[in-house]
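dumping this here before i forget
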Amino acid sequence: MPGVPAASSFPDRYGRDVLSSTPPAHHRRRPVATEVPARKDLVVEEASTGFTGAVTRVEKIAGELVVELEDGRGVRRTFPLGPGFMIDGKPVVLTRAVAQQAPVRKRSASGSVYVEGARARTARASRIWVEGTHDAELVHKVWGHDLRIEGVVVEQLEGADNLVERVQEFAPSPTRRLGILVDHLVPGSKESRIAQQVMRLPGAAGNVIVLGHPYVDVWQAVKPARVGLDRWPHVPKGTDIKIGTLAALGWPHGDKHDVGLGWKRILETVRSYADVEPTLSGRIEELIDFVTVD
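structure:
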């Protein structure tokens, strides 16, 4: 028609192909909201109200999770946790923050921090002596990790009767300390008299320490509950403490082989220092500290 511009001269806002599924170019895509944990002090804007504030807490009210925001004037408002928030002009979905747990430190049987993959230190000149095989096995089971890390060797005495001569041969010094654990270290006992003789030797003062527990045998330093007892049985004087204990437990006790098996059963119940009487565990810790002082 005369005076009417050609159709092509009009801008086509809707496109020529009405069947096309492609949205018109002028239509803007809505930005995709990203999930953001609602951590304390995070500053967000609630989109519908424009209220802007820092997250103070997330809690459940009437079964619904809400987030509390505090603006710069100290005004606090709560909103449903989820979509509808903005950070720096971009939409976000607030989610409940998951508390980050601190890494749990692995502990050794003695309760010390377990050093993963640590190589054993070169053995020190200083030593820890214990009376017999069972004492040494118990010490190694509970404190073995500490001993390897510190480079401490535990040696057996096979009884305390020759302790004075052994200490003289060892020749203790400030760089060659000696920590000794003996059984039945109570006033008036044979072991207490031997300990006194040792401490009077030349060079012993400051370089030797003799500690012990009150039990006749180290077996009794294991908490009796580990083998189902309220207390260790009383063994009459003159009866071997190990044989008498096994008999009272109803375990085989005819010979040394039975004694060895009985001790193995007891030792297998020990998981950590918590299964050992403090009167022993405290002494072992003290001995390790003494011989590792530089």
